[in-house]
Design a protein that fits this description.
It is a single chain. By secondary structure, the chain is mainly alpha-helical. It has a domain of 66 residues: Irregular (High-Potential Iron-Sulfur Protein, Chain A), CATH 4.10.490. A hairpin with a 3-residue loop joins β1 and β2.
Amino acid sequence: MAAAAAICATAISPGLRSGAISSFGHRRPTRRELIAAALGLGAVLPARAEETSAKVSQLAAAYQCTPKGMFSCAVCTFFIRPRSCKVVNGEISPTGWCKLFDLPD
């Protein structure tokens, strides 16, 4: 019985759960970081909302004034009301969309 309890305790211990920290002590990258790395924009996308960094042009972000399906700037984490963006330069329409779109978690 004690062996079964030890196995159960080991199976549910915090170090073995799938979480944000791996067994090597490194945190797992966020979706935003993975997208930035894939697009080569690591230095452009802010890690936090309060950090400021250089913005990309609308052309580089493939910005369009129309939504892409149900996705639009109005629901993006980077959108700043009424018509601005944390990562894209210029006036941004709430009904627009770009390839840097990030759906809130």
